[in-house]
Design brief:
310 residues, alpha/beta, five-stranded mixed sheet, globular
Length: 310
């Protein structure tokens, strides 16, 4: 990196995270705010965050959904009021400088590639497993964006054409099964809809409140039903990773997002099913499957790095 202080802002479905990094990619300051759903309020929140973090030499923003090369967010399933929002242009006018804008998962992938779990690896796919699923792709040491900037919408790869409805309007998208919300759904669907008993206990006895972390906690305690759900979940995650392997042939997958905190629970079943589902598994190298190192700050760190990656 050339400048001493880069600002990155990661806009998520519930929170906006801002970090300032130094020339080595180390975080030297951070702040967060709740994410507004209204476009004007969202832009104002980003402006306030950026102003509160001054001074900085450059600014980058990571956004969920379809973010084009001109810094316009076209659509975001988890921010339903945000459509065709000219983030780069609006912020550029406010600050009098070019504002780099990219997808949040692409930013997270860039951060893990440069200063995280994938350092030194030139062919990497970042998979963020959270409310939905996003992706960042590095091929031959280059951050891939695609013709329009939409590379990485891997959560909307269809894995079951007659499957669950998705917020994007289609059915059977990968993120309906392999995201954090997908894990909770698998738990609710276990045993003819009765759920997983220990996970329900961890959710305060309310089946409707069971979330992915409750299933993870029950599995970590050795609960048989929760472990069965985790195994099924691992199969869904592996199915998408196998499809991506057939297309991109990466050397490494970095698994991030909220579910990365359950690496000890999920990694073994994902690896098992990956080997079961991969084409010619005994005749080819397998990509490394690792979990992210940078946690919830990965997207913001990567956004701060965009000035040096464009």
């Amino acid at each position: 990196m050339n400048s001493s202080r880069r600002l990155g802002i990661d806009i998520g479905g519930t929170k906006c995270m801002a970090v300032a990094i130094d020339a080595h990619g180390a975080v030297i300051d951070q702040q967060r705010r709740p994410t507004p759903q209204h476009p004007d309020e969202l832009i104002q929140t980003v402006i306030e965050l950026a102003q509160s973090m001054k001074p900085w030499d450059s600014i980058g923003v990571g956004m969920p959904g379809l973010v084009d090369r001109s810094g316009v967010i076209r659509a975001a399933p988890n921010l339903v009021e945000i459509k065709n929002l000219r983030v780069g242009e609006l912020l550029g006018k406010e600050f009098g400088c070019f504002v780099y804008v990219d997808s949040d998962a692409t930013c997270a992938g860039a951060a893990e590639w440069k200063v995280g779990a994938a350092r030194g690896v030139d062919d990497v796919v970042m998979v963020t497993l959270g409310t939905g699923i996003g992706g960042g792709v590095i091929a031959g040491g280059v951050l891939i964006r695609g013709a329009n900037g939409f590379t990485g919408e891997i959560g909307h790869m269809v894995v079951d054409p007659d499957g669950r409805p998705c917020l994007c309007g289609r059915r059977g998208c990968w993120e309906r099964y392999a995201s954090g919300a997908g894990l909770a759904w698998l738990a609710h669907s276990a045993h003819d809809g009765q759920g997983v008993a220990r996970a329900i206990e961890l959710a305060g006895g309310k089946p409707g409140d069971v979330r992915g972390e409750h299933v993870t906690g029950a599995a970590r305690e050795g609960d048989t039903d929760a472990l069965a759900v985790v195994d099924d979940y691992g199969r869904w995650v592996a199915l998408g990773l196998v499809n991506l392997t057939n297309i991109l042939d990466p050397a490494m997958f970095v698994l991030g997002g909220g579910l990365a905190v359950g690496a000890d629970v999920f990694l073994a079943p994902i690896r098992h099913w990956f080997g079961e589902l991969l084409y010619a598994p005994d005749l080819r190298p397998h990509p490394a499957l690792v979990f992210a190192q940078l946690g919830e700050r990965a997207g913001a760190i990567g956004a701060a790095m965009l000035a040096d990656l464009h």
